[in-house]
Amino acid sequence: MRYTHIGRTGLVVSRLGLGTMNFGSHTAEPESHAMMDHALGLGFNLFDTADIYGRKVAPGGTEALIGRWLARGGGRRDKVVLATKVYGRTADGPNGRGLSAHHLIQACNASLKRLGTDWIDVYQMHHVDRSTPWEEIWEAMGTLVTQGKVRYTGSCNFAGWHLVSAQAAADARHLLGLVSEQCHYNLLVRDAELDVIPAASALGLGILPWSPLHGGLLSGVLRRQGGQATVRSTSARVAGVLTRRRRAIAGYEDLCAELGQDPSVVALAWLLGRPGVTAPLVGPRTVEQLDLSVRALSVELDQEVLDRLDALFPPVGIGGPAPEAWASQPPSVKLTRI
Length: 338
Hints:
Blueprint: E1 3-5, E2 12-14, E3 17-19, H1 29-42, E4 46-48, H2 61-70, H3 76-79, E5 81-86, H4 101-115, E6 120-125, H5 134-146, E7 150-156, H6 160-172, E8 178-182, H7 196-203, E9 206-207, H8 221-224, H9 236-244, H10 246-259, H11 263-272, E10 281-282, H12 287-294, H13 303-312
Parallel strand pairs: 3-4, 3-10, 4-5, 5-6, 6-7, 7-8, 8-9
Antiparallel strand pairs: 1-2
Helix pairs in contact: 1-12, 2-4, 4-5, 6-7, 10-13
């Protein structure tokens, strides 16, 4: 395993994070516990969850499952950088969701109880709440930090200008503010390169890409199914992407075969080499998939391969940050003195 600091902080995290969205809902508790033990053995220390994961099984089901794993002792809690999220509905009534001070504090206390811990290492706002002012949000977050319940604050699914607005409000209160942004970023979805990643990098935030394999589309689905792929996600969104991008995905799998690498390894290696990326969050269903992900840490893609990947999965516009990605600078105007 390799390690790095998360953003501008002194907090050290593994270069791959363990995403737990499947735990409890798609992966049974014994297998989930075994997966977390195995991840620790591989050197993972960043574990990511959310208060809405596993709610089809029970309210806060995944957090409770993780809490039972932590309760098994063996120094598990001190070995893990535990990140969870807040925003989604976790209680009845009009204040049962969002980022109001009321909900933030209530939801944090509920997460701590389910996780069976005294503190959350990185408490992430799962979405932007346009109805709650930043002053209120940071008042509540500051209280949680002062109480020792939260150590760092992060965001998830924010636009670049949301990151800037949030950090400006935190600076005005002399708070550390955001330390990370968790965004949807992979070879198939490169919109974050326009403003989210440039803003995060300028502010000193670490980038934690979620869905690095895009629901399994970058894991070799066509190869495994003999060209008749079915993906693990039943969402129309993922199925639609497979239909629209089938030729590119087939070309990608051919490239990976040429390189002698599993497609999931190449997808993760590409992300690990992108500017600003701290740790992609992998969501394995099996120990074998977890082992496979670690291979990406030792794979470096040369410029020729990177160019071929760009040809298969082009960046937005001409690539790079906005506005240059779509608006090249006009030629300079020559002035004639008269």
